[in-house]
Amino acid sequence: MKILVVDDTEAILLLISRFVEALGHRAILARNGLDAIEQCRLEQPDLVLMDVMMPIMTGPEAAIIIKAESGERWVPIVFVTGIGEENALADAIERGADDYINKPVNFRVLEAKLKAFGRTLELNRKVREQSERLADYYENAEEEKRVVRHLMEQLVNSERLSDPQLQYLLSPAESLSGDLIASARTPGQALHVMLADGIGHGLTAALNVLPLTQPFYSMTEKGYAISDILLEMNDKVRQVLPVGRFVCVTLISIDETTGCIEIWNGGMPMVYLVNEHGDVVSECRSKNLPLGIIPSHSMDFSPERFYSNGTGFVVACSDGLIEARNKQGEEFGIERLLQLLKEKSNLKPIEYFQETFLNFLQQEKHHDDVSLVLANFGANPNRDLKINHHSSEDISQLLTADFATGNQSTWRYNLVLTAKELRYVNTIPFMMTFVKEIKSLASSQSDVFLILTELFVNAIDHGLLGMDSHIKMNPDGMEYYLIERVRRLAELEEGRIEIDLMGVLLRGHEILRIRVKDSGQGFDWSRSLQKSDAVDPVPTFTFGRGISLVKALALRVNYIGIGNEVEVYYFPQES
């Protein structure tokens, strides 16, 4: 230790300093209180041995200043007192002195006191270092949380969460949530909603769910099915996260055009479909492992499908909601949530739930992240598919144009796929990547996606696979149709499909021409067109109405030859 020895008597000063040095310490000398203060400022001693009565400035006066200037650093002061200095000593101890020793000095007692203070100083040093480390850790942890919070805000598109078809609640147990809610629209305007729950909560759980955002948004925007998105997310989680980390996920797709609701549940609580009265009409329990546990080739990413005939909500939540407890130890439970959806309130369902949930907790803090998603279905009217986004003069000119005459081409894109490629290439999302780069189609992504999808699916299903759409009309027919389609496609050995996109100038307007040709046997397209013309121009979309959909969107639809080639002209929307 560095020990400051202060005394105005030279003999005592030298005697004590020599003894201190003999014990292995370093002695610093001062001969009055003022000198002691200066030496403290220069040398920063660990301990002070100081006489009480000295000229210029007394020991107690110097002790007050030394303590004040030491701040949070503890510098023990031990007074060496003579007979008759008891009052001054008491005053000094009241003002912050730590101990005293009487004159004449008993060096055995002094040695014991120095050892005791040495142990205390070492302990104080360790506590101070730990306190500094804790302060640094806290500061670093807060910075990490700030960075992760910023990343989550950037990666989770809050604007898309304001979709009118979606209501949600997200309440973290700590400053960061390990639950993630994201939503996005496909080019065909199907709503994709993801609810993810990372293992644990707080910072580590939040980091677990971040790898899911990029594949979810990018692949949804390109029109990939949720099974393809799940495969990519599982690969991403296994690539990025350490072994033992996984993410529970519910992925929902609601396509109002077809009335189809797809749900994949991996490790999350039961997902419910409730009607407008709050009655449960369907359930989707977890039949799959969470993402990140096993390789993708060992998992089944096929979603469960439901078809809506009315309006209602898809209800999904994390286990933090179900397991939240109030002061009485009672769990909130899923039954309470479903009961709330039955109750009438002037508030929106999610606001009514939030108010009731807070009342249930009785100011008790929930110990896991809480999330809830309510995605409504069946409430959106069918989109107006009439061509009404251009002037009637433009439309009339184009409808009377001779589409068969040669027209100037502004750009062209051609894709030919054989049976081998058709088994694994996600054709339409692949082509939409190109379509997005065409400026004249910037406002028509949804229409182009729907037209391409219908034409391509017809070419695959009816042209190459020989599927019969009437199967879908039977009970459970749609599921049988999809299973049979997968089987036939996997066994397809021969066949090809050609897709040709071209921008053409027609009477001063740039028109999109889409041509799809398959190597199949064709079909009676004239009968299908007559059936299409007989329906309302804004159809209610059901199974087998693909031609009606295409005709409603396009300027003209031409089937060529035996029906295995179709040519569609589409007038892009104005930006």
Write out key terms for the chains shown.
20 strands, 18 helices, 575 residues, five-stranded antiparallel beta sheet, five-stranded parallel beta sheet, alpha+beta
Q: Overview of this structure, please?
A:
With 575 residues, the protein is of the alpha+beta class. 39% of the residues lie in helices and 23% in strands. The protein is built from 18 helices and 20 strands. The protein has helices at residues 10-22, 33-43, 59-70, 86-94, 107-155, 203-209, 213-222, 226-240, 319-322, 333-342, 349-361, 392-399, 419-422, 427-435, 445-464, 477-491, 525-533, 546-553, and strands spanning 2-6, 26-30, 47-51, 77-81, 99-102, 166-171, 179-185, 191-198, 247-255, 260-266, 271-275, 280-284, 304-307, 312-317, 370-377, 408-418, 496-506, 509-518, 556-560, 565-570. It has a 5-stranded parallel β-sheet with strand order 2-1-3-4-5, sandwiched between helices. Strand 19 and strand 20 (565-570) form a beta hairpin. Helix 3 (59-70) packs parallel to helix 4 (86-94), helix 7 (213-222) runs antiparallel to helix 8 and helix 15 packs antiparallel against helix 18 (546-553). The longest helix has 49 residues, at 107-155. The chain is elongated, with a radius of gyration of 39 Å. The termini are far apart.
Low-confidence stretches: 381-389, 535-544
Average pLDDT rating: 84
Structural class: alpha+beta
Number of strands: 20
Multimer state: single chain
Radius of gyration from CA coordinates: 39 Å
Q: In one word, what is the shape? A: elongated
Strand adjacency order, main sheet? 2-1-3-4-5
Strand percent estimate: 15-25%
Instruction: Summarize the amount of helix as a percent range.
Output: 25-40%
Q: How widely separated are the two ends?
A: 79 Å
Main beta-sheet annotation: 5 strands, parallel
* Discrete helix count: 18
